C-alpha cells in the first residue's frame, strides 16, 4: 500500500493506493473509518477534490488544461516565473 498526502486541494488529507482484492479493500476501508471515528474522519470523493482545487486555482491536466492550452491561456500566469531563468517554452510564452 502507498499512503500519500499530496496536498493538491490545499486541505489536510491522505490517499491510499493498493492493489488488492475487493474483500481486502473493504476491510481496509472499514478499519480506517473505524479507527478515525473519534477524530471525525470522513471520506471525500472527487467532487469535493474538484471544488477545493478550483477554489485554490489549481488546474487538473486533461480536465482543465492539456497540450493545446498554455499556462497563460489557462489563467496560470501566477505560477509562471519569467524572472527565474530559462525554461522550456519561455520564448513562446513571452
TrEMBL record:
Residues 2-84 form the GCVT N-terminal domain. GO terms for biological process: methylation. One of its GO terms (cellular component) is cytosol. Keywords: Aminotransferase, Methyltransferase, Transferase. GO terms for molecular function: methyltransferase activity; transaminase activity. InterPro entries: GcvT/YgfZ/DmdA (IPR028896), GCVT_N (IPR006222), TrmE/GcvT-like (IPR027266). Coiled coil: none annotated. It comes from the Bacteria. This is Aminomethyltransferase folate-binding domain-containing protein.
Amino acid at each position: 500500500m502507498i499512503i500519500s498526502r499530496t496536498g493538491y486541494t490545499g486541505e489536510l488529507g491522505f490517499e491510499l493506493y493498493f492493489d488488492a482484492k475487493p474483500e481486502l479493500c473493504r476491510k481496509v476501508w472499514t478499519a480506517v473509518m473505524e479507527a478515525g471515528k473519534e477524530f471525525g474522519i470522513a471520506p471525500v470523493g472527487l467532487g469535493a477534490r474538484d471544488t477545493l482545487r478550483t477554489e485554490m486555482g489549481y488546474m487538473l491536466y486533461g480536465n482543465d488544461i492539456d497540450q493545446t492550452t498554455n499556462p497563460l491561456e489557462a489563467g496560470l500566469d501566477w505560477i509562471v516565473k519569467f524572472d527565474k531563468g530559462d525554461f522550456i517554452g519561455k520564448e513562446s510564452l513571452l
